[in-house]
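// run 5 | inverse folding | seed 20
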């Protein structure tokens, strides 16, 4: 069962590719259009069904890989912009969880004055942490490391000394 606006070619092509991929993977799930997208932002497709949890993987790695494959397949057809895949709103739940964790870590760093490094995470998740703490008055963030081991470190902000001060 596929729900989409009939005039949205990108969305219909994306739904078709996701549906074929799910069938090839022998996963009992359905691709449903959540947001149609526009010229700048691609559609968001939510995958729902009995086997949909299998598609998330550890920290969303399977879902990210599947999204990459779908966009690669659509790109070969000359279809852009990028399509976003989600499984039963996993990405939104994960985003809220990361924002809450960022706030807790920021308060610990602010209270004890020592930096804290978070677990390695993909770029999109690191960005959520950076954005969540971008206006925090007591901490700053930085991505450190390389490749799959890249992680966010939360540092206390240092007070700037005025000229002529101690």
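// decoded
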């Amino acid at each position: 069962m596929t729900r989409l606006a009939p005039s949205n070619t990108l969305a219909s092509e994306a739904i078709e590719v996701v549906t074929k991929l799910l069938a090839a993977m022998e996963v009992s799930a359905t691709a449903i259009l959540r947001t149609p997208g526009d010229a700048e932002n691609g559609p968001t497709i939510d995958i729902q069904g009995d086997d949909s949890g299998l598609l998330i993987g550890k920290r969303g790695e399977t879902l990210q890989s599947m999204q990459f494959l779908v966009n690669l397949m659509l790109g070969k057809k000359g279809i852009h912009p990028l399509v976003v895949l989600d499984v039963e709103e996993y990405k939104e739940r994960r985003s809220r969880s990361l924002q809450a964790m960022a706030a807790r870590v920021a308060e610990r760093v602010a209270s004890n004055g020592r930096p804290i490094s978070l677990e390695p995470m993909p770029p999109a998740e690191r960005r959520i942490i950076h954005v969540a703490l971008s206006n925090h008055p007591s901490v700053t963030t930085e991505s450190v490391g390389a490749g799959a081991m890249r992680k966010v470190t939360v540092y206390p902000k240092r007070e700037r000394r005025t000229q002529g001060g101690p």
